[in-house]
Write a structure and sequence with these properties.
Length: about 210
C-alpha cells in the first residue's frame, strides 16, 4: 500500500513533466499516473523517483527521466496487438509501460543482475506478457523473429544492423544515436528497403553495451 504522498507526486509528475510539455496520449498518461515509479528504483534513490531527471539504478545504469520515457513511448505509437522488442530491461519501468500498451514485450538486458531485478519488479505487479533474455543487444532477439516496434533505451554510435533486420516492414524504432556525451533521439520507420528518420530531440543516454 503506497502513501498518499507518492500518489500525489505521481499526479504532479504527469501534469507538470508530461502533459504540460506536450505528451498527450491519454492512455499513456493514465498508465504513468498509475504505475508506481518508485517501486522500480533501489531504496537509496527512491526519494528521487518523481523528479524531472534520470535516477541511478545500479551497475552504472539509470532510469530515464519521466519526460523522456513518455516521449519515447508516445512516438513509438504502440498498438494493443503489437509485439515490441525492448533493448535494455534495466529496472523494468519502461518494460511495464510497454506491456500495458501491447500484446507482448520481448526484453533484452546484458547485465544479468539488472535483468533479474527488472524481471522481479515487473512480475511483482502481476504483469505477465513479457519474455526476457540476458544477452547482447547487438545480436538482437535470439530467435528468428520480427517486431512491430523496437524501443532502445541506451545509446549506440550507429543503429545496430540486426535491429533493422528484426523490425517489420512499416515498423517503427526509437533509438538514441551518437557519441557518449550527447546523442540524437531518433524515430526510424521501415518501408521496404528504405529507412525514414526523424530527429525527436537531443539527449544523453548511457552507452549500449556491446560484448
Amino acid at each position: 500500500m503506497e502513501s498518499a504522498i507518492e500518489t500525489a507526486k505521481r499526479r504532479q509528475m504527469v501534469e507538470l513533466q508530461l502533459r504540460q510539455r506536450g505528451i498527450c496520449d491519454q492512455k499513456l498518461l493514465d498508465i504513468m499516473e498509475q504505475l508506481p515509479r518508485h517501486h522500480f528504483i533501489p531504496q537509496p534513490n527512491q526519494s528521487d523517483a518523481y523528479l524531472d531527471q534520470p535516477v541511478p539504478i545500479g551497475f552504472g545504469q539509470t532510469i530515464s527521466q519521466p519526460y523522456i520515457v513518455g516521449l519515447m513511448t508516445e512516438k513509438l505509437d504502440v498498438e494493443p496487438d503489437h509485439e515490441v522488442l525492448e533493448i535494455g530491461t534495466g529496472c523494468g519501468y519502461q518494460t511495464a509501460i510497454l506491456a500495458k500498451l501491447c500484446r507482448w514485450v520481448y526484453s533484452v538486458e546484458i547485465v544479468e543482475q539488472l535483468a533479474q531485478l527488472g524481471r522481479e519488479n515487473v512480475t511483482a505487479l502481476d504483469i505477465t506478457n513479457v519474455q526476457y533474455h540476458i544477452g547482447d543487444a547487438w545480436q538482437g532477439w535470439p530467435e528468428h523473429k520480427q517486431f512491430d516496434r523496437i524501443m532502445v533505451a541506451a545509446a549506440a554510435e550507429e543503429v545496430p544492423p540486426v535491429l533493422l533486420e528484426q523490425l517489420k516492414d512499416h515498423g517503427k524504432m526509437v533509438i538514441p544515436v551518437g557519441e557518449q556525451f550527447g546523442q540524437k533521439l531518433l524515430l526510424l520507420g521501415k518501408h521496404g528497403q528504405k529507412i525514414s528518420k526523424q530527429n525527436l530531440c537531443y539527449c544523453r543516454f548511457v552507452k549500449l553495451v556491446h560484448k
